[in-house]
């Protein structure tokens, strides 16, 4: 396991923390795929990671937004905007380019995801409880 879900990523909201664990799992799967030297053609696996991420974040963001709404979290609108940007970026990934240069495709996906864990989860999600 490369990316560890340590205490500084905990929001203190149990269901959100459980859902974040899954995003760490996907980041670790992406890292494993990058480091796997036994698979030549990784295209199908990259595509399946992207769709997994897409499906999962739709549910996760909706859950988080519902919670922010329920506590009338002050920064819920700007927070939601970050979710929208994440989804937009995920949807704008050029799959053809990934097929041409698979290694760069995985590296980009991983960077995008890790940036999200470190900046959004750690800095924004962790603030939800302490407004
Ligand atoms: Fe969030």
CATH evolutionary superfamily: Hemerythrin-like
The rounded distance between the terminal residues' Cα atoms is 33 Å
Order of SSEs: HHHHH
Helix content bin: over 70%
Largest sheet: none
Associated small molecules = fe (ii) ion
Mean pLDDT: 96
- Which geometry do the CA atoms define? elongated
Overall number of domains: 1
Determine the oligomeric state from the structure.
Answer: single chain
Q: What is the level 1 CATH name?
A: Mainly Alpha
| Secondary-structure class | mainly alpha
- The total of beta strands comes to 0
CATH architecture: Up-down Bundle
CATH topology: Four Helix Bundle (Hemerythrin (Met), subunit A)
Low-pLDDT segments: none
Beta-strand residue fraction: under 5%
- Count of runs of 4 or more consecutive helical residues: 5
Rounded radius of gyration (Å): 15 Å
InterPro entries: Haemerythrin_Fe_BS, Hemerythrin, Hemerythrin-like, Hemerythrin-like_sf, Hemerythrin_metal-bd
Protein name: Hemerythrin
Domain Hemerythrin-like: 11-125
Keywords: Iron, Metal-binding
